[in-house]
Automatic annotation (TrEMBL):
It is a multi-pass membrane protein. The chain crosses the membrane at residues 12-33, 65-83, 90-110. GO terms for cellular component: plasma membrane. Residues 144-439 form the Sulfatase N-terminal domain. This is Sulfatase-like protein. Its main location: membrane.
């Protein structure tokens, strides 16, 4: 093909440039995801497209993304020049390589865990909290305060260092040993990113995208499980005042909409801290954990009524991938963090979060106010890539599990016992477990809410992953569920 510089020739080659850019965007975009986030699911990709907020993510991540986009454009222009100077066979070979490269890159990056079966698996096992009769065992003044902490990407393996002198979580590991754990908390595909992990733990069902490809996609994006009830809805109905403290923006991936739609009356994220005059770093996901925990503790101690139990939900940011954040509240920042290995940065981030969250939990439980206390600390999800794997001992079965620990105290500060068991469970079991820890009971299906079963239930009734196996339960729950769509948007689903 002979090059031409006429305006008509330029217009003729513009569609070719656009197709080249699209193919290269698929290749470089999926490469970007693999490098900085690891493999992802289709649900994760579609959900973030549906609910947006990507412009509120870490500015460093956005800067990297723009560089990838610029590089993709330059490469597209280079390949266009090659095509214009190549013969027919050369052009066909290049298009074939690009097509194969795009397909291979997507296959290596995005997985579809759906395991089709008969009917709506979620509907077959879902216990709708809205049709149950719930009641609190104690009067309002004696209902426990609850501290629920989601630590970004916290792997249970961090409690098993090969060398105790290099323990990533020395303080929380002691909590892990001293208080109640329930065995292996497995990470469902629908709980494999931050909002998915929060939602699945609080609402008892894995998060799915709804309506993105339909004519009602805008309407769906304005909703967030509007017809479903979550732990915060149940506790608010029984008098709990609920607050959320996060370092990142509430605008990201629909997080603020979810909290507002489910009775979380007080919400704090990046913008809310800035409005209060708190200095938030310009880079990173938002308010770092040393300052976040202090701001949360100050707000947790605001004046209150004697008959007002409180629930405090906190989501950390320091250990967010790909390598965590340096927190000057824990140690002076290095002169040039870019020269530090990612594993070193993550180890520092873990130690900082470990110290700040253990301190917050200890402060919370040591309040001598006569009110019972419940503390549940867990990872929001597992990171696709474990940076410190070489420093950690693997689990007995080789499966990665999410960090979790429960501590309960009566009004005199005495710790309450819990079943000593090694269970297989998932995020969906957190909802009924915390509901029972808060003193709620219900009928006609006691101990079960959403897809979960309370780990405090007598007789240890089987969880979904114990009964069907993790692979089967995860695969079936990853498939489209008409019931989930109905719970998301109600009557609009049938249109």
């Amino acid at each position: 093909m002979r090059p031409s510089s006429s305006p008509s020739a330029a217009r003729r080659w513009l569609p070719v440039l656009l197709v080249l850019y699209a193919l290269l965007f698929v290749i470089t975009g999926s490469w970007f995801l693999r490098k900085y986030l690891g493999p992802v699911t289709w649900d994760q990709v579609l959900f973030h497209l549906q609910h947006g907020g990507l412009d509120y993510s870490d500015p460093r991540m956005l800067s990297r993304a723009w560089r990838y986009l610029g590089g993709t454009l330059l490469l597209s222009l280079l390949l266009l020049a090659v095509l214009r100077c190549s013969g027919r066979r050369g052009c066909l070979a290049l298009w074939g390589l690009l097509g194969l490269g795009a397909a291979a890159s997507v296959a290596a990056t995005v997985k579809d865990p759906c395991l089709p079966g008969d009917g709506d698996y979620l509907a077959q096992h879902y216990v709708d909290p809205s049709v149950l009769k719930l009641k609190a065992a104690a009067p309002p003044a004696q209902r426990p305060d609850i501290l629920l902490v989601f630590i970004e990407s916290l792997d249970e393996a961090y409690t098993r260092p090969r060398d105790a002198s290099q323990a990533p979580l020395p303080r929380l590991s002691r909590w892990h040993e001293a208080h109640q754990t329930f065995g292996a908390l497995r990470n469902l595909s629908g709980a494999s990113w931050t909002v998915g992990g929060l939602f699945t733990a609080l609402c008892g069902v894995p998060l799915q995208p709804v309506g993105l490809m339909s004519r009602q996609s805008f309407e769906y994006s304005q909703q967030f499980f509007d017809q479903g009830r979550c732990l915060t809805d149940l506790l608010a109905a029984q008098g709990w005042d609920i607050s959320f403290y996060g370092g990142a923006s509430l605008q990201f991936a629909g997080k603020g909409r979810f909290l507002a739609n489910h009775q979380v009356g007080r919400q704090f994220g990046r913008e809310q801290w800035q409005a209060r005059g708190v200095a938030v770093p310009a880079e990173g996901w938002g308010l770092l954990d040393s300052a976040l925990s202090e701001q949360a503790w100050a707000d947790m101690n605001r004046p209150r009524r004697d008959d007002e139990p409180r629930m405090h939900i906190l989501l950390t940011v320091n250990t967010h991938g790909p390598a965590g954040s340096e927190d000057p509240g824990c140690a002076p920042p290095r002169a040039d963090g870019s020269d530090v290995a990612a594993s070193v940065l993550m180890a520092d981030a873990l130690r900082c979060t470990d110290r700040m969250i253990e301190q917050l939990a200890r402060r919370f439980t040591e309040q001598a106010d006569g009110r019972p206390k419940v503390v549940w600390i867990m990872g929001d999800h597992l990171a696709p890539q474990q940076l410190l794997a070489e420093r950690l001992s693997p689990s007995a079965d080789g499966a990665r599990t999410v960090f979790h620990v429960l501590a309960r105290f009566d009004g005199r500060g005495r710790e309450l016992s819990a079943p000593d068991a090694q269970r297989q469970f998932s995020h969906v079991d957190v909802l009924p477990t915390l509901a029972e820890a808060a003193g709620l009971s219900w009928a006609p299906q006691p101990h079960r809410l959403g897809l979960g079963v309370s780990l405090l239930a007598p007789g240890a009734p089987a969880t979904l992953v114990e009964r069907d196996g993790f692979a089967t339960a995860d695969g079936r729950l990853a498939c489209h569920s008409p019931l989930f769509a109905k719970l998301w948007g109600g009557d609009a689903v049938g249109d």
